Amino acid sequence: MKDEVITREERVANLKGMGCSRKRVEDARFTQGKGNYVDDIKLDGMLFGDFVRSPYAHAKITNIDTAAALEVPGVLAVLTAKDLEPLGLHWMPTLAGDKQMVLADGKVLFQGQEVAFVVAEDRYAAADGIEAVEVEYEELEVLIDPFKSMQSDVVLREDTVDENGKPMDGAHGPRTHHNHIFTWEAGDKDPTFEVIDSAEVVAEETMYYHRTHPCPLETCGCVASMDKVNGKLTLWGTFQAPHAIRTVVSLISGIEEHNIRVISPDIGGGFGNKVGAYPGYVCSVVASIVTGKPVKWIEDRMDNLMTTAFARDYWMKGRISATKDGKITGLHCHVTADHGGFDACADPTKFPAGFMNICTGSYDIPTAYLEVDGVYTNKAPGGVSYRCSFRVTEAVYFIERMIEVLAIELNMDAAELRRINFIKKEQFPYTAALGWEYDSGDYHTAWDKALKAVDYEGLRAEQAQRIEDFKAGKTRSLMGIGLSFFTEIVGAGPVKNCDILGLGMFDSCEIRIHPTGSAIARLGTISQGQGHATTFAQILASEIGLPADSITIEEGDTDTAPYGLGTYGSRSTPVAGAATAMAGRKIRAKAQMIAAYLLEVHDDDVEFDVDRFVVKGAPERFKTMKEIAFAAYNQAIPGIEPGLEAVSYYDPPNMTYPFGAYVCVMDIDVDTGVTDIRRFYALDDCGTRINPMVIEGQVHGGLTEALAVALGQEIAYDEMGNVKTGTLMDFFLPTAWEVPNYETDHTVTPSPHHPIGAKGVGESPHVGGVPCFSNAVQDAFRAFGLRHTNMPHDHWRIWKTANELGLHG
Amino acid sequence: MIPAAFEYYRPKDMAGVLSILEEHGDDARVMAGGHSLIPMMKLRMADVPHLIDLQDVGGLSDIEISNDTISIGAMVTQHAIIDHDGLAEAAPILREASLQIADPQVRYMGTVGGNVANGDPGNDMPGLMQCLDATFTVVGADGERRIPAREFYEAAYMTARDDEEVLTSVTIPRPSGGYAYEKQKRKIGDYATAAAAVQIVKEGGSCASAAIAMTNLSDTPIYSQSAAAALVGSSVDDAAISAAIDAMLGDIDPTEDNRGPVAFKKHVAGVILRRAIERAWSRA
Amino acid sequence: MSSKKHYSITVNGKQEEFLAEPRELLIYTLRERLNITGPHIGCETSHCGACTVTIDGKSVKACTMFVAQADGKYVTTIEGIGGLDDLHPLQNAFKEHHGLQCGYCTPGMITRATKLLEENPNPTEEEIRFGMAGNICRCTGYQNIVKSIQAAAAEMNAAKEAAE
Asked: In CATH terms, is domain A38-140+219-267+275-307 a member of 1.10.3720.10?
């Protein structure tokens, strides 16, 4: 037999299973321009819808006149809140337990808010129709600053106060002011304050993590098609969570869920932008029902930046205490969270501030207390996790800045301060002061490896020389060494504490093995560039012994895929990846029985070996998985159903906790504020590595988005609530020219509770990267007295820092 | 982003262009590469009922270099400037500056004429042309006029060109000496936070003549005669450069925008000019 | 609304004739009228390059050109650069070196890179980064895009040498 000349190593290699840098199966279509994104969809008679948007950040709407718009050739309908009200669709529930206007109901709360939906034969007529809609506004006082909002008499949301103007309770408990949304607490207040108040050393700092936006290259959009004859609604869209969208659409439209089919085609990047439900989706569905024709809605870039899904906007006030030799004893964090006009934060229901309570970071901090106040302002709603798990970027930025500030207070090296406070390897599983149970970690090993790789001591010596040269007038360039050590919390999550709109955050995989030994697996997640079709097939190949090349992975069609909560927060590998492995194991268990029958031995006498079951002690007697697959369909095996299929719904017992150690070396021109990233080293530990090539690609991308956020990317408003950064001229997306080469490295500390030990990696580089870039800037000025300065570190802000430190003479 | 509807014209000659301009007055505009105008039309910030595309008008894409002068047709693109070795030899600052404009795709479309004619204070070529003492040739119903670049810019988007005139070419006296175009920007594709164009002629160790122009630091490009004067006759030492910077700072009037506040822009303008002078001097 | 005019554009070697409003943007002509959906729309203000096509030998952002301007021109999109039977070395290299993730920027990126390599068959890393700076990618961080273009350049140069 030909098979006998193949070695075991060759059989392993043939599978292209876990651990190999398998080339991506998605790439053939993308490199040939044959991807299928939502704006590529073209249906017979398809109409185009687009919004009239508010030019004002806060205004009463006194009249909307659509008559002239309806006269524009090609315009078929103009929807306003009045049209949606009888359907109960003029407002919609948000993921955060609040509600949001679909179309302006008497007033607008942020610039760019959806006021009317023009439906036309094509996008040109829609654009002309928008120009012809006449809206009368009466401007109201604008509240942009959350602290002022909490002091203001102006009521932003009349629907949240009672007839006496008193704030009614919100989804997360009592509200202290009419513009207050919630207070959320974690940890022990009094003990923490006691520890801090009596500590030998306390460092305090206030930092603003500015508002930004995920800005995937493809904006949000959808095509809604109501088939009135069959009563079926099909909705294609840029959805990071297609099943959740189906359930939401059903709940708010009253269409039974089996009559709704949601399809996420190829998605041009998500980064959190495409998790939420937006007015465009609702209006497209309504317009399709009204007109009986398919309706497409696609955001333009300004719409995208101004209205759907901002990220961050956290004012964080911290106190950290330590002994005088640097052992941290307590941490207190207060956050004022600016949620804009509606609380549309995309977090698990019980976590209105996401997993901000991971803010004790990678450190063994015995006592901690966190409190978050959510506030309404006249800014766009959102609050998504931009390339991170829920609010984890904020948490890690906070602790990694507090560590640096404490190091200054202690006059200690920040690398050393981290080292003496890391949670030790033997402490895992480790329960943090704010409640999370970290699954596994080996921080000291990772840290030492990173510092050695960059020659940390050498860098500090070079920096010291540079400072001397600067003081002597020999150079105008300073050198910053940015450090960060992060622990992510991803893979939401256990159904017992994580749900979205009551839907438990499990995920799923369904596998069908075909008679000829190939397979299809469908998942509840949806790739937006992560390469699921490649990597999930690798997991399965290793689990079931069929080559990855023979396994099709399909996602995103709710009529065929099993229910799942989608892809965001690095949850695909930790949750759906686990479901895939578990479903694979069910296949393998049945295959074992079939193999035993075929080999005429007891079930326990065969064992799995790469791509086959062999008789224990007699490796020449075996049945390959391919043979077993065929037998499953052509033999009547007593006591075993025909076929070879399995499904797994996986409810993870815990989150996973990837971690990493990053170092950035940066030169800063003190006179112009221009930064030059000379070196960036990233060590990631994401547990078991499924595809090193894909992991490296994720790290490069996440770091680049981190660079952008740290060095210039922001959604900025003026005092009137106008967005100042609405196009890519002003909203910073770095080009190849602004981005350095990265050095990547890794350690492997598998997750003990995950079936294959994988932890997820897509978001780690962003979470760890932002503080690393920021710390590099801040570190450059440490010798001149800087404690903290806020991001984004664009040229003028760095210049301002230098100027305030007296470095311009 | 969809522009309002318009009538489109692609005349074959300048007479055709002028007659459309005459007929429609303010309602008509000429377009070269379109990379300034089209985004404005798409954002509906520019209303152009009659759009005249110059691409078929002959004779606007030539680069001519003689012993004394360089003539660049209005439709010559930044890409063509970068690509032209003779031009790079005759006036190397043109290539150095063009490489700092926008990005490769935009430079294939962006033209000299469009860049200098529309009066956008963010554009790089107006200051560059002031530094080089260029003359713009415009043509209208009454024939041709020649306007010095240093007298062309009146305010943002306001120039000495009448609405019914078309800029056809740029003529530059062949520069000599050292040169530098120094630009600080936030990223590729951005306008300048501050930019400086400098030409310096050196004779016997001292500065015989100089020209300095600054970009995006006022509502027009700033040709700073006083800054140049501070250099002339000096050995371009620290004191002279500082004097030039002080003089330049007296001429510019930046406003705050996303690139930063006024104090920052002034500071950067000084740094950029210092670097440009030093580099130009080292090449002189 | 202005009336529709007759236009003729040769796209990927095929002459296309149709009536359209002059204000129609070339990117929509390609995507919606001619069903050539490889080029994408990312920013609409000529910053991102997702819509990059080649027109008469120039890399152009098709979101910033009216169909009327493109009348009579020769346009090449990713679909004309290589297909199943004749993949361009860049298309192979992007796959081989993981030069893409979500794929949205990829058609514009590869289309631009063909022109870059035509003008500079042996670019340095710096020249690639500068020459590709009109195309934004949100996923890859560019490092593997640079690697892909270098690999394709090497392959194309080797093939040229072998042919000589």
From this structure: no
